[in-house]
Amino acid sequence: MARKHIVILALILLTLLALKWLPVGQAPTHAGPVQPTESLAGRRIAKATTSPPSPGPDGFTVSPQVIMTATRTHPKKISPSPSPTPEWVWNPPGEVIAPILIYHHIVKREPANRYFLSPAVFEAQMVALQHWGYTSIPLSLLVEALTEGALLPPKPVVITFDDGYLEVYTHAFPILKRLGFTGAVYVIAGQVGVGKYMNATELSELAAAGWEIGSHSWTHNSLRNPAVKLPHEIDESRQMLEELLDIPVDTFAFPYGLTSKYVTGLVKDAGYQSAVGLGGSFRHTKKTRYYLSRIEVRSNYDLKRFASLLPWSGDLPGVTPPPPDQEGGLDSP
Questions:
Q1: In whole angstroms, what is the distance from residue 19 CA to residue 7 CA?
Q2: Which of 32, 120, 225, 332, CA to CA, is 20 to 30 A from 254?
Q3: How would DSSP label each residue in 30-66?
């Protein structure tokens, strides 16, 4: 009997020793399914969510969890412009200094016309902006900075084009893309895909590249004209562009820069977040949100004159643009 007890104890001891030397995470088959080990992706997420908080733009700290949650909750806040660098600074709400430039045609014309810039002249101006340290931003980011505050580059600029002419796609778009800039184009809704105007495919490609698309009314008639059907020009032009391009259209450009208190009210009621007109100022406030000043760049401006339109400039870059065209007959803006 004693020998039988000794044999049983020996078997128990051997079993205990075998369990002790099993690899970590392995269990006997009769103990149930093996629990999966943590994945590499899971460890990376855990590490990110336990990282020290990072400083926010106002001096307060923001945890990575808050940043991740904000990104998921507010996808529209993601800007189409380049990602902010350490040089970007917090602009509190209330005022923004940034030139909003307006162009129409980017193609050479004979005889010369103030609205027709040759691609070479346009490229020289964009190279100068890059040389002087400008960063293009979408108009929506400028409006966000006005109303809520936002991170902005030291020298922001908004580059806009009116009407939606085809040469914006064929000439301006490649130049801006090569220099790392984006733009905004205000489209005459009733002219999309007609003759010399861009079609839906070309506009969609601009939008996919970070450009903003705005409405420039349906027919480009003056909205002060009593015969104009304002809901058609303002509301329906927006709806048509949104349905055609499957993107939000949140900004409006007044034809000829003309509006009234009543017309501006209709633009607000239609759901636009901003509107642009004409002017010479690069200083914007909350009060000008629905008539943001845009500076016209004419075909007969040399680089020195172009620099005078801007709040920041410097020495002229090492480029030799062709001489500016002499101003000829005028088209309507």
A1: 19
A2: 120
A3: GG-PPPPPPPHHHHHHHHHHTSPPEE-TTS-EE-HHH
Q: What is the DSSP letter of 170?
A: I
Give the domain extent around 149.
Answer: 98-308
CB 325 within 8 A of CB 300: yes
Q: Count of domains in the chain? A: 1
Distance CA 171, CA 119 (A): 6
pLDDT over 80 (residue 227): yes
Tell me how far apart the 2 most distant CA atoms of the chain are, in Å.
122
Residue at 235 is within a domain: yes
pLDDT in tens, 37-79: 443 333 333 333 333 333 333 333 332 222 222 332 333 333 4
Is 288 a member of any domain?
yes
Look at residue 25 and tell me if it is in a domain.
no
Rg (CA), the chain: 30
CATH assignment at residue 106:
3.20.20.370
E strand residue ranges, the chain: 54-55, 61-62, 89-91, 95-97, 100-103, 105-106, 116-117, 135-136, 150-152, 156-163, 184-187, 212-215, 251-253, 274-276, 283-285, 295-296
Inside any domain, residue 91:
no
pLDDT tier, 317 (very low <50, low <70, confident <90, very high otherwise): confident
**Residue 329 and residue 111 in contact, taking contact as beta carbons nearer than 8 Å:** yes
